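Hi,

I'm pasting everything inline rather than attaching a file, because the server keeps stripping attachments. The sequence lines come first, and each chain or strand is labelled.
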Amino acid sequence: MPAFVWALPPLALLGLVFLYPLALVVQQSVRPDSGGTSLQPYADVFGSAAFRDALGTTVWLAVGATVGCLVLGFTLALVIAFVPFPGGKAVARFIDVFLSFPSFLVTLALLFVYGTKGMANGLWTDATGSTGDGPFQFLTTPWGVLLAEITYFTPFVMRPLLAAFSQLDTAQLEVASSLGARPARIVRRVILPEALPALAAGGSLVLVMCLNEFGIVLFTGAKGVTTLPTLVYGKAMLESDYPAACVVAVVNIAISVGLYGLYRVVSRRAGA
Amino acid sequence: MNSGIRFDSVTVTYGGHDGHTALDALDLTVEPGEVMALLGPSGSGKTTALRAVAGFVRPASGRVFIGDRDVTALPPHRRGIGMVVQQYALFPHLRVDENVAFGLKAQKVPKADVPGRVADALELVGMGAYAKRYPRELSGGQQQRVAIARALAIRPGVLLLDEPLSALDAQLRSGMLAELARLHRELPDVSILYVTHDQVEALTLADRIAVMDRARLQDCGTPQELYRRPRTEFTASFVGNANLLPVAVGEGSVSLGGAELKVATDGVAAGAAATLCVRPHLVGLGPGPNALTGRVTEVQWRGATHRLFVEVGGQVVKADVRELRQPPLLGEEVVLHFAPEDGVLLAAGVRGG
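And the predicted assembly:
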């Protein structure tokens, strides 16, 4: 039996469950309801304010969440890896468990704490005796989505960082401090440069996941926040406008794949 | 610059209160400009002593001085120490010159002075031509030279070397030994604490050797003193090779098996048990003073020498003799001898420990 035969089952599976539906989506996006094949759905969607708003919101939320995750993740990973404290190992283990949580769980938890009827607002109304709503209403704004995404995705940055830090030769840190470097300089000049590949890997992963995040946006109940995935949902399920939904989906896929390609090019340059 | 290192009863323990004692009440002074080797097997506390000077371990008790400054409570970055470790620990993302400049920038040396001092330091170790390379493009020996230049660029009063040659192969090691000796001649004011388990490195480089074992200082003296007149069995066996033979002490002589041997017995009471230390290369084959007769149990040919193992009165005596055309056969009876002044008597009760 020739070797290429072994390539057939995975190719068939990939084609059936992934490539064929993808092709259907692309095909549907150029079949307007009026019949025939045209790029009219693209023109309609690109021309609509709703799409441009959603695109803008998606990109700034994803970029903002990624930056937040990188800063928070780097800081937390530094503490866990280099500051000995009791229970440090347990915390590192918990990071792994956290990765397996569904994203809506974090959002739900935030709702319990900061939601309109959540604990924080409850404490406020109890304390002041006011009958109106509490002061914490940000959860239904884009900031709530940002907070939820940062909370949920930060461990995805920490995992590769902790792995990178465990590879770091502690003798380098000791020599650096004996040469007169304070901790801040050691972090900037020794640890950060060696953590860059891990930061790039974690950051690009989080960026792509944020671009495609659906559950968090839906669960925060932020009605004014529309991202590309929720726009696809709205067009397809609520308006039954399949060509428009497929156009948005194609744009979403193109952005994800494009970013992934960019990441591969950048990481190869950095590795060379 | 005021240099020199003083350990004042320094004790280091790991793992809390009744943890394991890594260094037990070390008293030791390294004079300004002196090379002090800390020699001992692994786990003897020598690296812990070095780390206490660098500031990476906090002594449970005792003080550490650099010059006349008490540095016990100072963080590492305020101690002004040059340090070189076994695995070089160069910063992999920085070029050679940036590695050397690291300490200068950390110590806020004026920007205009940095390139000159980097060039000087690299010139000192003969790496001037490699300034723009990355560490991964250099051999182990070259990386270690850069690490030494990086440590010297900040002009430290104290240089700590932690097994600096252990990662190099034998030939490179002997070259680097000569290089380190030359560096020390060019920088006579720098005190050097040199941690090693290799007696050759210690004998070659050190002005004095501190022999460590089981967290304690066992012996301290010049290489000649420790080699020719060791005070303990541990020193005798760790600094060079030694025959350590249990003997009974008489008046101006000792007896081993049935043989009477003339050696200096000052300080050891007649009738006591003691250990006689004789270096194998000072034992000769054939009749002579202090003759010992025994049977050959093993012969090892080592190129330039033969090592004979001869059983004398139940003890095995090693003799390193110039290569023999006709080495004795196993089981053959031979006569060994040594000069009275080559035997050192170690009183009982001074076993290492």
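DSSP finds eight helices and 20 strands in chain B.

If the labels don't parse on your end, tell me and I'll reformat.
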